Structures are given as C-alpha cells and as structure tokens.
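Tutorial handout. Part one gives the primary structure; part two gives the three-dimensional structure as tokens.
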Amino acid sequence: MSQATQSETEQVNRRLLEQYTEIAQLAGSLAHEIKNPLSTILMNMDLLAEDLRDQQAPELRRARQKITVVQQQCERLQNLLNDFLKFARIRDLTLTPGDLNELVDRVLVFVQHQAAQANIEIVRYLDPDLPSVKFDAETLHAALMNLVLNALQSMPDGGTFTVRSRTTKFGVALDLIDTGCGMNEVTAMHMFEPFYSTKDGGSGLGLPTTRKIVEAHQARIDVQSEVDRGTQFTLEFPTPARLPG
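Part two.
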C-alpha cells in the first residue's frame, strides 16, 4: 500500500470513528432522556395499582389487569435501556494486572447456591500457576457473570459446568463448558449481534456486551456448541508481557 493510500485509509477510519462516537453519544443521551419519563410512568402505574388493589368491582379488576400489562412493559423497556447503556458505554477501560482465577472464583461462589438448586455440578480446574493478566475487575466480572448465568440457564434439568483456566502460547485462556441444550447454527451465527435473542423478553444485548468487554481487554472470545450436547466459550487474554505498547 502506498503512503498516500495509507493516509487516505487512516483519514476514512478516523472519520468513521468520529461518526460512531457521535452516534453512540446521541443514542446514550436519548436513552437517558427516555428513562426519566418512563420511570414517572411506572411510578404512577404502581400508585394506581395500589389504589385499586382492594377494589372488587369487575370493571376495576379489568383495570388492574391492564395496569399490570403496562407495568410489565415499562419494566421491560427499563431493562432494555439499562442493557443498551451498558453496551454503548464500553470503550476504553483501565486495565491493571490481577489474578483471573480469583475473579472467576468470586463469580462461581456467587452462583453456587443457584447451581445447587438446579442440580448443576460446578467443576473447577483453575491453574494455580496462572500468570497475571490485565483486566478491569468490574466490567470483566459482569461479562463472566453473564456467560456463567447463560450456561446455568441452558441446563434446566441439571448437568455439569466446567471452568478451566490454562496457559497458552498467546497468554491465558479461560474455558466455560456446559452440558446444556447447545445452539444451532443460526443462533451461533447471530448470537453476538445486538438485539438478537432467543429468550422471551430478552434484550439481545447480553452477549454483544460481553464480547465488547472481552475485546476491550485486547482479548478474544470463541464459541463451540452442539445442540443437546452443550457449549464451550473460550476467552483468551494476553499476558502483560504480550500486550502491545
């Protein structure tokens, strides 16, 4: 590529980044503006439901049912807006060296009771000699929590959830392996697309947000899945010595 062509490409990429940043800021501002009146609507619906709680007239019971529908839809919109704001906010993170095993263990301790109730066995293979990696603890914790909860939800009849950390020639890998329902090719192809969801009422932003978080850590995420056999997510992080710059 000639120097002139490279310069033109850099200018185009810079303009695209500026446009993306502007659109993301506008979308975030719009989401915030929607949240305020939506909260007011939901609060007034709650108050109206309270006023009608003990009313037994048929027309008032029907009114309560309609209020319940409005409340449910308002809550769904609130959850969607919250997920969108998380998705739009992820840009540059402050990464500091830390113990990935310790972060993973905190997530697993949090879900241990839920897993036991669902008859899911959690198996840990965490390498005690794992090198440190750079991460932002809050955002990576949220990403791992999303992946772990998805794995547990894929095993409604029980199963095994295996978590393995290991060293690779590129850095450090984390495998999350479930024996759940798995994904077909269509779902696997689209699962990282914003707003694509196979769950009723799902925002379709959980996995796209997770991927953005992983990529913001200069890491990568791979998926292998087979219907009725299970799914494996692999996250691979560079060690500090392998990070650029």
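Part three, for discussion. The radius of gyration is 22 Å. The beta strands are 96-98, 120-126, 133-135, 159-167, 172-178, 220-226, 230-237.
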